[in-house]
Design a protein that fits this description.
Shape: globular
Strand content: 25-35%
Order of helices and strands: EEEEEHHH
Structural class: alpha+beta
Number of strands: 5
Length: 109
């Protein structure tokens, strides 16, 4: 069964939040979510923001929504035989947060 964990790799005030998708013992993908947090507000025990103010509670809600979305898309990809890669995961994160994606072809035109 696939699992998702969130982590930060910095002790700064603007630490990037990473999503790690573990598909199997041998396959694990990690990508930036595009969300940031003060490292003092991060709980390493839960892998989520501390629930000490409303912005952290909203951030936790966003991360839980992302978890549900990615796991649903992973199940769909597995049933359709789609290869799960880092680019696939990055695209899902962008789709979930409604971020526009400019492809290389659009950039050249």
């Amino acid at each position: 069964m696939a699992t998702i964990k969130y982590l930060i790799q910095s002790k700064s005030e603007n630490a990037q939040i990473y999503l790690r998708l573990s598909i199997s013992n041998s396959k694990s993908l990690k990508r930036k979510t595009g969300l940031i947090i003060n490292s003092k507000d991060w709980s390493s025990a839960t892998g989520l923001p501390k629930q000490n103010d409303t912005s952290n509670k909203d951030l936790t809600t966003d991360l839980r929504g992302l978890t549900k979305f990615v796991l649903n898309q992973l199940n769909e990809a597995n049933t359709k035989g789609v290869e799960v890669t880092g680019d696939w995961l990055n695209n899902l994160i962008n789709i979930h947060f409604n971020r526009s994606q400019v492809s290389e072809l659009e950039f050249l035109i």
